[in-house]
């Protein structure tokens, strides 16, 4: 029998959110590196998420003591269900590698280099990481990679503290620039991690290339949809909720187009079975966007959001914050590239609102203006330097 661990619903919601997001990141990393080891980490996290979901449902039912309580708890249960479904979608993505469903090499090598990618590494005995604390190593400075979780055997530590000491056998999960992965693995005493080499063309690939382009856009947009959904819950913002709904509608159309191009590509590919993986990936990405849409239903309808839900979203591993560009601040008139947000603050620009229109995943060349509203996601430690860049005091963010 599992040990009883007194937990509160807010902390469990925050952990479940972090767990599902880590599962999605690792699932795509498993595809990128064709790694069964990374897929196995997703499967381990799925077991943890399932238990969290069961416990949260139990607590929510016990906490409903009146009809008004039941209405608010129904909203929490909806979000819990969507978090579970996001985790299930990540599980399905990870299975593509283990079941060898087939991933076109064109997909692996057409994925644009992200500014940040997830990485997993095992600490080897006698390595530079063995027996040292995260504070001593200072991985964000040494490699640009930020620790987001540590697994010691079956025990997980999310958002590990600086004093956490790494031991041989620990599995470390990090987020950061792709160029930091090689240095990180060297510090851990692990062999280099190589991406699969591209295969030579087996015929006309124009249809497949179009399908791959559509999938990559689906992947990126689905991740934005989840970020916007959590932001809509945190800020009770009906405008953001409508953006999520619009994204989900767009995802449906994109999936139809992708399926068409995959079917056309099958006639020109020697092994059509290798196209199965991209169809599974598209289904999983669409599911993630569907979950984001379901999450914001309460905001769309003007229903009251339980404070526990807002608190959990605001206190998770990756915080979401909305900041206006103060006229005359350092950010006013600068491009995102010039601000070096990822390296200076550890925060990532999710979307920018200007004149009532949102731009998702703005490019590095996007130039900010006074009055722009920017949604960021990232580590809580980045809030203070971020606020300073945008002409605000940290106290303003807590109000």
Could you explain the architecture of this structure?
The chain is 55% helix and 12% strand. Among the domains are: 116-188, Regulator of K+ conductance, C-terminal domain (Alpha-Beta Plaits, 2-Layer Sandwich); 318-396, Regulator of K+ conductance, C-terminal domain (Alpha-Beta Plaits, 2-Layer Sandwich). The strands form 2 sheets. The protein has a 4-stranded antiparallel β-sheet, with helices on both faces. The model is unreliable at 1-6 and 198-205 (pLDDT under 50). The chain starts with 8 loop residues before the first helix and ends with a helix. With 399 residues, the chain is of the alpha+beta class. The radius of gyration is 21 Å and the shape is globular.
Helicity, as a percent range: 40-55%
Q: Total helix count?
A: 16
CATH classification class of the domain at 318-396: Alpha Beta
> Radius of gyration, rounded?
21 Å
The largest sheet, given as strand count, sense and whether it forms a barrel, is: 4 strands, antiparallel
The string of secondary-structure elements, in order, is HHHHEHHEEEHHHHHHEHHEEEHH
Structural class: alpha+beta
How widely separated are the two ends? 43 Å
| Fold-level CATH name of the domain at 318-396 | Alpha-Beta Plaits
CATH superfamily membership of the domain at 318-396? Regulator of K+ conductance, C-terminal domain
